[in-house]
Write a structure and sequence with these properties.
Elements (H helix, E strand, L loop, with lengths): L1 H23 L22 H6 L20 E4 L2 E4 L11 H19 L4 H12 L3 E2 L3 E3 L2 E7 L7 E5 L7 E4 L10 E8 L5 E8 L5 E7 L5 E9 L4 E3 L5 E6 L15 E6 L8 E4 L8 E6 L5 E7 L5 E7 L8 E4 L6 E7 L2 E6 L7 E6 L10 E3 L5 E8 L2 E8 L2 E3 L1
Antiparallel strand pairs: 1-2, 3-5, 4-5, 5-6, 6-7, 8-9, 9-10, 10-11, 12-13, 13-14, 14-15, 16-17, 17-18, 18-19, 20-21, 21-22, 22-23, 24-25, 25-26
């Protein structure tokens, strides 16, 4: 035991010495093998080595790149929270790229030395390379769906005039760039099914660029929406444009992650700079609005996000030009998720007075009322999701760690 403690102290001392030397910018001495854990200091495989199939070989001390700490902090609920590694959130900065390269220089040789690596890759390829279809979206008598032949890096967007038709490719993100790192992250067909708004994500970033493609000929319009992520777009029911949440721009033209988005309306054919401001939060620093149009086009349901346990909802009557949004749920006492509407009756999946969740019917003509009829009552199992489809509510529960619809 004393010998192990001695080795552990020595290893810790080496790590500290190397880190201090690296931080000071001094030269590092050559790395020496660490004594093994077996008799006489012979190498023995660790549990990780055994699991990965690595042989018992002398290992050298791993020296990880020193990660710079910066003095950055935010105040949340009166408490100051340090964020010393925020500089790593700038994925395109030279410093972040150098840090990633240095990390890979340490990890890649170790990973590539695993004997079973090739077998694992082959087995995963067998399991993942199969043809896949997503659930189609129907608009304007057409069916829009994602398809992957099993070997494509990114799924392609197809459109079909009939449900039993194989469809035709409307947009294939694999052709955008040779390395296929541009993904189709979202799409929303117009109510007439003649135009599709689709979003591209470059290299796994959350930021999206929205474009609009005509279904008849597969040609994009001149419209482009930037400074967006997460919240999607919602079409006006006459197909004239979309409602979307837009972040403020930094001086370099990129989106400001620290800024708060506002809801805008983009009219097809107009430049994004001309988009009309619909709704902005002016009384709170962290609440984020997103908007969805009801199927009949009468209302714009504006959901305010600020965490995952409660939210707010406002309502805008689109039949009344110039009207301002009216608060619908403003107490921030529960979660209210809009799932659909039937005329003036809006259906919400909520935790209000129901920890396991229920579905309520809210009369849009009486936004101040709190007397909401329950459509789907709270049960003994959690109501995980609810959808309003064809005049019916489809409920999905979680029971004993599996879903039940």
């Amino acid at each position: 035991m004393k010998k192990l403690q001695c080795y552990g102290s020595a290893a810790l001392g080496l790590c500290v010495a190397y880190l201090l030397t690296a931080c000071a910018g001094g030269p590092l001495s050559p790395l020496e093998p660490i004594p093994g854990a077996g008799p006489g200091g012979k190498p023995m495989p660790t549990s990780t080595d055994i699991a990965a199939g690595l042989p018992a070989t002398p290992s050298t001390q791993l020296v990880y790149p020193v990660t710079r700490r910066v003095h950055v902090s935010d105040v949340y609920n009166g408490s100051q929270v340090e964020d010393p590694y925020r500089w790593l959130e700038d994925l395109d900065s030279p410093a972040t790229r150098e840090w990633v390269m240095a990390q890979n220089k340490v990890s890649q040789p170790r990973l590539e030395a695993i004997p079973h690596r090739a077998w694992v890759k082959q087995r995963l390829t067998q399991l993942w390379n199969y043809e896949r279809f997503d659930v189609p979206v129907k608009e304007g008598g057409r069916y829009f769906f994602l398809h992957n032949d099993g070997k494509q890096n990114q799924s392609a967007l197809l459109v079909a005039d009939k449900l039993d038709s194989p469809g035709r490719v409307l947009f294939d993100p694999n052709t955008v760039r040779e390395d296929a790192t541009v993904a189709l992250s979202d799409f929303t067909p117009s109510p007439k099914g003649d135009v599709v708004a689709y979003a591209l994500s470059d290299g796994g970033t959350d930021w999206q660029i929205w474009r609009f493609r005509q279904v008849r000929d597969g040609v994009d319009t001149a419209d482009t929406l930037r400074l967006t992520k997460f919240w999607g777009v919602s079409w006006a029911r006459d197909g004239s444009g979309v409602y979307y949440s837009r972040y403020p721009a930094l001086p370099n033209g990129r989106g400001d992650d620290a800024g708060r988005p506002a809801v805008y309306f983009h009219k097809i054919g107009d430049p994004q700079e001309s988009d009309r401001l619909i709704y902005a939060v002016t009384d709170h620093p962290t609440r984020v609005p997103s908007a969805r149009v009801t199927e009949d086009g009468h209302y714009l349901v504006i959901t305010l996000f600020d965490g995952y346990d409660r939210n707010g909802v406002s309502l805008l009557d689109l039949r009344q030009p110039g009207m301002k949004a009216t608060p619908l749920f403003s107490a921030w006492d529960a979660l209210y998720t809009f799932i659909g509407a039937n005329g003036d009756h809006l259906y919400f999946h909520t935790t209000k007075d129901a920890p396991l969740r229920r579905v309520i019917d809210v009369d849009a003509r009486k936004p101040a009322s709190t007397d909401w009829p329950t459509v789907v009552p709270e049960d003994t199992t959690a109501l995980e999701e609810a959808s309003y489809v064809g005049g019916r509510i489809v409920a999905k529960y979680v029971h004993d760690a599996h879903s039940v619809a």
